[in-house]
Amino acid sequence: MIAAVAMITPAAGSAQAADSTPPPVSDGFGLTQVEAASGSATNFYLTVTTPEVTGRHHIKIILPSGYYDDPNRRYPVLYFLHGSPDDPVQQNYPALSMSNDMITVIPDGGARGWYANWLNQRTVLGAQNWENFHLKQVVPFIDANLRTLATKKTRAIAGVSMGGFGALHYAQVRPDLFGQTASLSGDIDLSVKSMDLRLAVVASLIDATGAICGSSSGACDPNNSPYKPGVDSDAAFGSPYPIFNADWRWNEVDPAAHMDKLRTVGVSIYVGNGGGSPTETEFWLEGAAKHVKDSMNALGMSYYYVDYGDGSAWGSNCNGGHNAWCWEQDLRDLIPRLERSFTS
After folding, report:
1. Beta strand pairing status for 43-50 and 38-39?
2. Which end of the chain is more exposed for a tag (fewer CB within 10 A), N or C?
């Protein structure tokens, strides 16, 4: 879904000295750097272009604090997918900088890219092949430039909101790439049962900011919309309406409908309910998460599922809503579990 969040400042001491510089990174796999890397030696971002998606795109990279101490050591990788309409540079969750045992990569997913190859590549936005960008370019680019452990077991993908959809979708498309996937308040049921989530996607495409700003995962000002220019409502996934199979593409990418593809992948689901009010975004996402849970139960799958309700027992600042305070606590729970899975 798409939510206004309170930005969290990284914990003191998490950044490197001001005079430290990012490591050199070489172009390749269709990615071309167009600016010098910005940030510290262990927390920096690149700016790249790709034929797959029009425009310039940030890729944020967080390295373990000891990355430079042992030039022979290789690390597992967590790919973290942001929500709508965020940017990788804005992903400042302290939990993402606390691991000394893995690399974290945060690629640009666009304000409303929806981690997919759009059906309509001829909108005013130009090329919108986000899935190709991430799976065919970013992953091998990272493996070629950093000391990664490039195996299924040592590669995980997780995301918040729109990124939660992306995390499950990508793991379903490429279960050979990812050993673990996690959705944090994700749009993980795009079936007709969750028509409100389909319409939230459509709202972001057509720039219906009055309808979606209250449920966005990043800053969203109706007077300065991050969703401009609006495009065709069917641009990403075709018609959302189940008439004569017009919604075939929605059904094809719906995570809830394809949980069987994750039988060899560890699945984690985190969600709240915003206090149980139907006016809260998280209330609807809880319903989506339950549909996914029901699907996994029917398939006899194992999984990790946390519904923290109103958030009163889930971190000091979580209120169960669609916001960064709850996602920070999700990450504090998830990351140690990922670290254990990488070495088990």
Report:
1. antiparallel
2. C
CATH number at residue 139: 3.40.50.1820
Angle value at C-alpha 268, between 310 and 283, nearest 5 degrees: 30
Domain of residue 266 covers 32-343
Residue 4 lies in a domain: no
Beta strands in the chain (DSSP E): 32-33, 38-39, 43-50, 53-62, 77-81, 103-107, 155-160, 180-184, 266-271, 304-307
- pLDDT tens sequence for the chain (344 residues): 554 443 444 333 333 334 489 999 999 999 999 999 999 999 999 999 999 999 999 999 999 999 999 999 999 999 999 999 999 999 999 999 999 999 999 999 999 999 999 999 999 999 999 999 999 999 999 999 999 999 999 999 999 999 999 999 999 999 999 999 999 999 999 999 899 999 999 999 999 865 555 556 666 666 678 888 999 999 999 999 999 999 999 999 999 999 999 999 999 999 999 888 877 889 999 999 999 999 999 999 999 999 999 999 998 899 999 999 999 999 999 999 999 999 99
Instruction: Please name which of 312, 220, 324 lies closest in space to residue 273, comparing C-alpha atoms.
Output: 312
This prediction's pTM: 0.93
Q: Give the H/E segment covering residue 142.
A: helix 139-145
In the chain, how many domains are there?
Answer: 1
Residue 11 belongs to some domain of the structure: no
Q: Which residues pair with 31 in a beta bridge?
A: 28
